[in-house]
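Weekly modeling sync, notes
Attendees: S.R. (lead), two postdocs, one rotation student

Agenda item 3: backlog of single-chain predictions. S.R. asked that every request posted to the team notebook include the full sequence so nobody has to chase files. The rotation student volunteered to paste the first one in as an example of the format we agreed on. Action items at the bottom.

Example entry:
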Amino acid sequence: MAANKDEFSVKQISPKLGGERGARNPYGPTSSHDLVEQMEFLYVDVIRAIKNSDVDPGPCDPVVEITLGNYKSSTKDLPVGPNMDWNQVFAFDKTKGDVLSVTLKDRLTNTVINKSNFKLASEIPTRAPPDARIAPQRYPLRNTKTGFYLMMSVWFGTQVDEVYPVAWFSDASEVSTCVINTRPKVYLAPRLCYVRVTIVSGHDLISTDRNRTPSVYVTATLGQVTLKTEVSSGTNPSWNKDLIFVASEPLEGTVYIRLIDRVDDQHEERIIGKLEKKLSEMTPLKVPSSAPALFYDIEVEPAGDSRRFASRLKMKLATDQAYHVAEESIQYSSDYRPFVKGLWPCLLGKLEIGILGATGLKGSDEKKQGIDSYVVAKYGNKWARTRTVVNSVTPKWNEQYSWDVYEKCTVLTLGIYDNRQIFKEDQANDVPIGKVRIPLNRVESDWIYACSYPTLKLGSSGLKKMGELQLAVRFVYVAQGYARYSAPFRWLLPKAHYKSPLSVYQIEEMRAEAVKINCANLARTEPALRNEVVWDMLKPKTNTRYSTCDMRKVAALAFFDLFLYWPSLIVWLAIYLVVVPCIVLVGLSGLHKFLTRKFWNKRENPRPPLIVNDLKLWKLESPNLDELEEEFDSFPSSVSDVNILRMRYDRIRMVCQRPMILLGDAASQGERLYALLTFNGDDQLASFYCWLICVLVALCWYNIPMWLWSLYPIAYWLNFTPLRNDMPCGISNFFRRLPTNEVLF
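Predicted structure, as returned to the notebook:
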C-alpha cells in the first residue's frame, strides 16, 4: 500500500510561545522558557499537621486529601516524618475546577477531622519567579476544636516554578509509591576515556613445569571486560599487542593482568603470575603520543613460591585522554570532544529545545487507551527527561532545555517512551514509541523552528507512523569573529584520531562497551534512566538506505533542480571563473546577489522545516513487503529449514550489504555537494565559502604563470618537509560538515 507523503512530512505549527515566534532575535534568548507554551498550575505545598496544644485529639494518624474538580491527590502513600510532616508539593491544572478543597482525615478511622475550601478566583495568590516562594501558613480549616492545624502554602504558578520538577501532578495521583519515576530530570553522563594496555614482551618466564618451554598469553581485565593476547612460546616471548578498554571518570578502576601458561592442546592452563595496576597510576596521555615501555615484576603463583629469577612483563600502560570515545553511530554523533578538557574547541553556540507535546501516539498495547509517555533528549553527555503524562495520547509537556554546542555538524536525538514503572517498578521494560533526530547543520542561527515531526517506525510490515512530536528549536551563536567563521574548517575529530587512528573494528567494539558503561552509570541515578532507554537512544543505524534507490533518476532530478534553482548559478559562475579567469570581475555580481539574499531578503523568505522525510529517496513511498520481510529477517535466516539454502541466503545478504553501504556513502557525498551548490547549509555560508575559494583560485590561476604551477606537483612528489602533513585539510573538514539526507529515525 502506498504511503501518504503528507502523513510522513514535517509540518510547521504556530504555538503560542513565550518568545517571539518565527522571528529573528539578535540579542539571544528573551527568557528561560520562551520556546514553550505557558501552562498554569495550582500548587499546594503541604508541609505538616500541627497539634493544637489546647485540645487533646487523642490517637490520630492524619492524612490530607486535596480535591479540585474531578482530580484528587492524597498524602496517604507518603512517608510521615516524626513531626507529622510530608513536605510534598501537589500540582493541579487550574482550569479543572473553581474551588480547591483541603480535607484532613484520620487514617485509622477514615473520618473527616476538618475541611476547608478555597475559591480560585479570589483567595489564591499568583507567584512568578524570581520571586521567593510563598511562606507556608497555619490553616485552622473549619473546626479548631479537633486539635489540628495544617501548615501549607497555595499559589498559582507555571512550569518555570522551581517546584515543578518535584511536584506530584494530579494526573498521576494513582501512581503512589512510584511517583518519583514520573518526574522530569536532567542527567550528566560521566565522560569516557580509552585505557590502553600494550603488552610488548615477556622476560625470564618460567613455566610451572621446569622441563617444558612455556606457551604463554596475557589477559587483562577491567570491570567486566577481559581481553587477551595470542599464545607465544619461549621464555622471552613477544606480542606487541594493544588491549584497549573504556573507562568513565573519575578513572578509579583497576586493571588485573594475568600471565597464563597453556599446557597442552586440551586448553589446560595454569597461571604463572599476576599484576594489578590502578588507572590513576598509569601515564595520562593528553597529547597524541605513546607511553614509555617499562618493565613490571609479576607476582608469582602460587604465593610464596621462591624462584631464582622473577618473571617480568614489558608493557605500556596509559589512559588515552586525547581521544574521543564514540558512544553513538557516526551518522548520529552529538559530540566529538576528547576526554581532557584542555583539548576542547571553543564554545560555538547554544542549542535550545522546547518540547511542546505530542499527538496521535500509538503504543504497543492496543487494549490500553492511553499512554504514559515521556520524552528523552540527548546531546553530548547531557540527557534530559520530561515528566510522564499519564494516560494520554496527546500529552503536553512544555518543557525547555538547553545545551552547549562545540560542533555544529552534530545531531540531536529525541525519543518518546511508554513508562512502565509508574505502578510497580521493574515490572516491565519501558517501550520505545519513536525517535526524532535533528541535524544541527540544517539549523540557521537566531531563528525559531516550530514544527511537528512524525515519529516513524520501520518494521517487517512496512513504515508506520507512531505519532507526531511537536518541538520548538533555536540555535544562537556565542562565538564571534574568527572562532565562528573558522569552525567549518577545523578538524572534526581530535588530533589523536588522525595521528594514531583506530581501526573501524576497534571503534565499534569500544562503542558497544561505551554503551554498556553509560547504561550502568545512568542506571545508578535517582530516578534511574533505564538501560533499555539508553540502549535505544544510542542504537546504531541498521538500514543505511532501506532498499536499492534508483540512483540515475535521483541524480537526474537533482541535476535539473540544481540548474533551476537560481542561487546555484552564482556558484556555477564562480567555478567557471577557475576555468576562464578572464571574467573574474563578473564574479563580483555573484557576491552582490549573495549579500542581497543573505541580509536584505532573509526576513521575507519563509523558514523551511529542519528535516524533510524524503520517502521517494528512501523507496518507502510504496514499499515491497517481501523485501521488508527479507530486510528484517534474523541472522541466521529462519525462512527455510534447508541448511544449504540458508547458508547461501546469508552469504548473499552479507555480500550485498557492502555495495549498499558504498552507495549510501556515495549518495551522502553527492548530497553534500548539492547542499553546497544550493545555498543550503550552515547559515547559507557554505556556498559563500565555495564562491570565495573559487574566486581566489581564479585570481591565482590568472596571475601565476603556468610554469610556476607545474613546480607544485614536482615538489609534492619530492615530499619536501613543508608539504608533509597527514592531517585533513580545511577544505576536507568543511565539506564533511555539509548536511546530508540520512534517514533520521
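Discussion: group reviewed the output briefly. The radius of gyration is 32 Å.
Action items: rotation student to repeat for the remaining queue; S.R. to check formatting next week.
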